[in-house]
Design goal:
By secondary structure, this protein is of the alpha/beta class. The chain has helices at about 5-20, 35-40, 50-60, 105-120, 125-135, 145-150, 170-180, 215-235, 270-275, 290-295, 295-320, 325-335, 370-385, 405-410, and strands spanning about 65-75, 80-85, 95-100, 135-140, 185-195, 205, 240-245, 245-250, 255-260, 280-285, 345, 360, 365-370, 390, 395-400, 425. It has two domains: about 5-330, Zn peptidases (Aminopeptidase); about 340-425, no CATH class. The strands form four sheets. The protein has an eight-stranded mixed beta sheet with strand order 1-2-4-3-5-10-6-7, with helices on both faces.
């Protein structure tokens, strides 16, 4: 197995999860790093919002490499926050963790909170070298209202992971601004799923951007992240893994049915790819695997979080070992749109070729928006980082820009999740 970048920090966390006894607060040294409610209870309960806020405040005060900032507020008034972890002001690449977009999927949030703490206080050489060259950004709870209610959606019952194009939610808008402003090389999205034995019951499932507008090298890097790092890393730690959205025959391992995981652009892993980041969705199994886990929910909870941590460590190893290849792939993808060449796909996926009607072979030069249209969608275009030019009669969105394909998906009348139908400019 490749040497893990964050080995000492993760080993400490894994040991805490597996410990038979709980270390109570009075027994901790005054200078000890803070612990989550999940850790203190040995997995018997999830970390509460006040405990999360206390931990984030503590690491912000206690570690010079941590910066905690607000990026928005939910409809119910809960903070949306971003943690930045790095030992240098500028680094070579950036990894963004999006944790628990679905409020009833807590294991990703727990893994993110302990990861923030472990990176904040790490002293081992491997981790320090990683943080000297990599900025880690973390949205610890991407759906605080859903977390409070233990619901998949937010307080308006909107699935935040289906709002990365329309940006109608405070949560979706906050994440779009983070991606625009920080241009992460890797976007890693942590989720959980319900098993369907015997076809769909792995400890961990992963999936890259399937959207056909993801640049070839970015797509290849995302598959490498999944198939050569995250899944093998989970398996080396003793967990089973598979591809998200594909039922497989338990005997032959052959695909049986696709039940999820298409190329629709409004899902974060696909949006990330279209925005030229190496995106990955990870899902850990909620359901208990053994009789022991059925009898002891804390044991099952520790397995869920442990799976997330093992996969996440491998993602950091990927970012460290392949930083040059990742940077070259994302930089090339960001430049390509300025050439304004090539088709844009309105549908299909990397395992489902686009139909002729789903392909714009020769896109227009840009799209004209009326004043009313621009008033309605101008903020969303800006949040997406799509360039536009204001004029006396509205605005013009040229396609000669970094986010060329995204502009088409946002403004073409044929796009499934468009913001509005712009008037094509065919004068080029």
């Amino acid at each position: 197995m490749r040497p893990p970048v964050r080995a000492l920090a993760l080993c400490a966390t894994a040991a805490a999860l597996a410990a038979p006894a709980v270390l109570t607060a009075p027994a901790q040294a005054a200078s000890a790093p803070p612990r989550t409610g999940f850790e203190v209870s040995n997995g018997a309960r999830w970390t509460t919002q006040p405990e999360e806020q206390a931990l984030l405040a503590a690491v912000d005060r206690g570690s010079a490499r941590v910066t905690l900032s607000g990026i928005g507020t939910t409809k119910q008034g809960r903070p949306l926050q971003l943690v930045r972890i790095a030992d240098q002001r500028r680094t070579e690449n950036t990894v963004l963790l999006i944790c628990s977009q679905h409020g009833d999927e807590p294991s990703g949030r727990e893994a993110c909170l302990t990861t923030v703490r472990d990176l904040a206080y790490a002293k081992d050489k491997k981790t320090l070298d990683f943080l000297a060259r990599t900025t880690v950004l973390v949205v610890p709870t991407a759906n605080p209202d859903g977390r409070a209610a233990d619901t998949r959606g937010n307080s308006d019952r909107v699935d935040v992971n289906r709002d990365h194009i329309a940006l109608r939610t405070a949560e979706g808008r906050a994440m779009a601004a983070v991606v625009r402003d920080h241009r992460p090389d890797v976007v890693y999205d942590l989720h959980e799923y319900g098993a369907t034995p015997p076809y769909y019951d792995k400890d961990l499932l992963a999936l890259w951007p399937r959207n056909l507008n993801t640049a070839g090298r970015v797509h290849a890097e995302a598959r490498t992240l999944s198939e050569s790092y995250v899944r093998p890393g989970a398996e080396d730690a003793g967990f089973s893994s598979g591809v998200y959205g594909i039922w497989t025959d338990p005997v032959t391992g052959e695909p049986v049915k696709q039940v999820a995981g298409d190329g629709q652009e409004r899902i974060l892993r696909n949006t990330a790819g279209i925005k030229h980041s190496v995106g990955l969705l990870v899902e850990t199994r909620v359901d208990p695997l053994t009789e022991a886990e059925k009898k002891d929910p804390a044991l099952n909870n520790r397995r869920r979080v442990g799976t997330q941590l093992a996969a996440l460590e491998s993602a950091f190893t990927y970012a460290h070992e392949r930083r040059g290849r990742i940077g070259a792939a994302t930089a090339q993808a960001r430049r390509a749109g300025f050439a304004d060449r090539g088709p844009v796909r309105l549908g299909g996926a990397d395992n489902d070729p686009a139909e002729p009607a789903e392909t714009i072979q020769d896109p227009p030069c840009g799209y004209h928006l009326s004043a009313a249209q621009y008033a309605d969608v101008g903020d969303e275009l800006a949040l997406h980082g799509v360039a536009s030019r204001r004029g006396a009669e509205g605005a013009y969105v040229p396609l000669r820009q970094s986010r060329r394909a995204l502009a088409v998906l946002l403004l073409d009348e044929r796009a499934a999740y468009r913001l509005t139908a712009g008037r094509p400019d065919t004068t080029c």
